[in-house]
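This is your field. Have a critical look at both lines of this record:
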Amino acid sequence: MGAKPTVTFPAGDPAKKSSMEVLSPGTGAGVAKGDTVFVNLSVWSWDGKQNTLEGSTYDTKKTEPITVNDNMPKVMIDGFGKTKLGGRFMTVVANDSYTEQELAQAKQNGVDTSKPRVFVFDLVSTLPKAAQGEAKDVKVKSVKLTNPGGDAAPVLTTKTSDKPPAKLINKTVIEGTGPAIKKNQSVVVHYTGKLWGSDKQFDSSWGKDPFTLQGVGTGQVIKGWDQALEGAKVGSRLLLVIPPNLGYGDKDSGTIPASSTLVFVVDVLGAY
């Protein structure tokens, strides 16, 4: 643990069956399905010849968040379930880990699933499921935010006939204790977005996996998010009111009408 792993491959043909081995059980907290875990991860392609290292977070020096769920092979779920934080496990993911639909999709995308892949996971930390701490009444006119506490989702209400503000409102409801987010960092968040005035919810990550934004301040999301997240502390809950010029402007975007003022509550769960 704490160092890039090396893997010695046996002679002969690659494995045809998937498998998992706990290399170090860890002494930290356990990991449950639905948890998002920051890991160090190294991946090899096992072809029986070159056995090439595809990549390692020990080279990029950035841990990655992975949510443990049924979208991953069962051998990985088993590994996370049997390894605690601070531990390491290895999986061999072969053809038998994929459904017929997944194999067909991989073939269509030009992915060669005949070569098993070897994954070594080092479990670093788990993300909270919600921002934790005392919530302040930030008093944004015409917007109501209920903070139930614990891991429960905040409840946002935006029903009003009042005129929306012309400038970005960025209020810290819960101030996190983590580091401030820097430009180009990636962040993991839970959020709910509603339209000002109608209380119509157009999107939410709650009840699903957290959302990962790759590269704060680089235009991957609307300008209001970029401006609000840069400098926010990890662990914070933010209430944002975003005018159209920092949102989607004068064009429709999916279920969001043109010239909409957007209201978000955002829990900043982690950054890397």
